[in-house]
Design goal:
This protein is 80% helix and 0% strand. By secondary structure, the protein is mainly α.
């Protein structure tokens, strides 16, 4: 007797294997350096607490990185990075919004629209950076046929 696997189960297994392989390219040290680099002003001015922001930023980094790597196949097959970015803009916006809302929720309440806007812009830049990194690594892996 053989075990019968459904197509969706096989796809899920393949996706998990792909994600595990692509995450080997990501280092926790680099993530923490980029968090400090992007949010240093807010840490120094005591608007945000580094320990609180770091955890959620790591989660959002992984999500953005995997999203970029997943959509990199379109770039490998000839689409420009702008077209690929447009394909997943809803997911990127959702990641940005989620990160921003978490940071606003756990940061100090400043009631300053300018500070809130700059935090949102920083979150957007942070998510886009990691999306592009995932896109670059994913496209590179496609070229090397490591997929």
């Amino acid at each position: 007797m053989t075990v019968i696997h459904s197509l969706s189960q096989k796809r899920q297994e393949k996706q998990i294997k792909y994600e595990l392989n692509i995450l080997k390219e990501l280092s926790l040290q680099k993530i923490k350096e980029k968090i400090k680099e992007h949010f240093i002003f807010f840490f120094q001015s005591r608007i945000l607490y580094q320990a609180i922001v770091e955890e959620t930023c790591i989660d959002h980094t992984i999500e953005a990185f995997l999203l970029g790597a997943h959509f990199s196949r379109f770039g490998f097959y000839g689409e420009s990075i702008e077209m690929v970015h447009a394909r997943c803009s809803n997911e990127i916006d959702e990641l940005t919004r989620s990160l921003y809302e978490y940071i606003i929720c756990w940061g100090k309440s400043t009631n300053d629209d300018l500070v809130d806007e700059s935090i949102h812009l920083t979150c957007e830049i942070f998510v886009h950076f990691w999306w592009r990194e995932g896109y670059r690594i994913g496209k590179q892996r496609h070229k090397l046929k490591l997929i």
